[in-house]
Design goal:
Strand order of the largest sheet: 1-8-9-10
Radius of gyration: 21 Å
Mean pLDDT: 94
Structural class: alpha+beta
Number of strands: 13
Order of helices and strands: EHEEHEEEHEHEEHEEHHEEHHH
Length: about 400
């Protein structure tokens, strides 16, 4: 990689059509896990003008009815803040097309006799960490998320009632000698009240961008773009259809690291698309937090119905202080990377997923109830022994 370059990442708000769908799908996962921690859920959501469609497969308590799924969808949309003519939590049509999980999948995945629980599907998953920010995330995606989080907090609190739920950000960061030093451009597009013009929206947005960025990082005025089309009144699913799982780069590292291809939202933690992506982030973050590398990428792969990973790959990008094969071996000793081992180590069978649906699954603070457990750095003491 060149030592001097510009790298760009984008984020989208909780009111973006795709994120509305992620939130609904993850709220359904939480509903099932709260009723039975071992429920199986794979639910997709489609949202368009005043309509939400739920589809997928579940295995869980019969007490969770289609009506209960509808109510969860409505509550999620209400929490986001949609009460508009073209998309209203109370008036929207909700169609529920969720059915029981295929028994063919259950046979391959379930633990039985001497057979341990297998992976819910084949696939490759990546985790990444770097020392560019305090939370060990790449700077562009970290600041893109932060801008939108601050704007959303202001909207929910009533501080900025003229902003709408739908918004996007894009942050281009200048790197010198491999380190982020400032922004070359910032783009923010946000839904707004019809009474605001473009200049008015720009001045509402500006303080949140300044607050989000480190001092001295703000881009030149001519590279600060707010609602470049000039008007953004119609937004959310009324302006553009949404689907679960279409913002996987926003969910992870903003393109600064590989992505395995599988989305997270709407899936219970037996699905390695989700749980293995979480555990590889956990391992990579602990490697960087322990000072063993400035950057770390970890890949794992699985086959459906097989309990152990087929491969575990560690790359410290030339910044490592210990042998990568030795590091890979030690990480596998510290954490059982079978689907069951991951779920138990990170305690993933809990209703902690609706909160992950916007502003990234990584770079968040671990929470007292187990939310974002994959952001803990509790392996650091053991990993430091490797350097010694």
């Amino acid at each position: 990689m060149s030592s001097s370059y510009i790298f760009t990442s984008e984020s989208v708000s909780e009111g973006h059509p795709d994120k509305v769908c992620d939130r609904i799908s993850d709220s359904i996962v939480d509903l099932y896990l709260k009723a039975d921690p071992y429920s199986r859920v794979a639910v997709e959501t489609l949202a368009t003008t005043n309509t939400v469609v739920l589809a997928g497969e579940v295995r869980g308590p019969d007490s969770i009815s289609p009506k209960a799924l509808e109510e969860v969808a409505r509550q999620a949309v209400k929490d986001i803040g949609y009460a508009q003519d073209g998309f209203h939590w109370q008036n929207m049509k909700v169609q529920v097309l969720v059915h029981s999980q295929s028994p063919d999948i259950a046979v391959g995945v379930d633990a039985k006799g001497n057979k341990d629980e297998g992976a819910g599907d084949q696939g490759i998953m990546f985790g990444y960490a770097c020392d560019e920010t305090p939370v060990l995330m790449p700077a562009p995606i970290f600041y893109a998320h932060k801008i939108l989080r601050l704007m959303a907090e202001a909207r929910h609190s009533g501080e900025q009632p003229l902003l709408g739920p739908d918004a996007k950000s894009q942050v281009s960061v200048v790197y010198e000698n491999g380190k982020p030093v400032r922004c070359s451009s910032v783009v923010v597009s946000t839904q707004h009240d019809a009474r605001l013009d473009q200049a008015g929206v720009r001045e509402i947005v500006r303080p949140y961008v300044l607050k989000a960025l480190p001092e001295g990082w703000m881009c030149p005025e001519e590279e600060f773009y707010v609602n470049p089309t000039g008007r953004f009144v119609i937004g959310g699913p009324d302006g553009d259809a949404g689907l679960t799982g279409r913002k996987i780069i926003v969910d992870t590292y903003g393109g600064a690291a590989p992505h395995g291809g599988g989305a997270f939202s709407g899936k219970d933690p037996t699905k390695v698309d989700r749980s293995a992506a979480y555990v590889t982030r956990y391992l990579a973050k602990n490697v960087v937090a322990a000072g063993l590398a400035s950057r770390c990428t970890i890949q794992v792969s699985y086959a459906i119905g097989v309990s152990h990973p087929l491969s575990v790959y560690v790359n410290t990008h030339g910044t490592g202080k210990v042998d990568e094969q030795k590091l890979s071996q030690r990480l596998q000793e510290l954490v059982n990377l079978s689907p069951r081992g991951i779920r138990e180590h990170l305690q993933l069978n809990r209703p902690i997923y609706a909160r992950t649906a916007a502003y990234g699954h990584f770079g968040r603070d671990p929470e007292p109830d187990g939310g974002f457990s994959w952001e803990k750095t509790d392996l650091v003491p053991e990993l430091k022994k490797l350097a010694a």
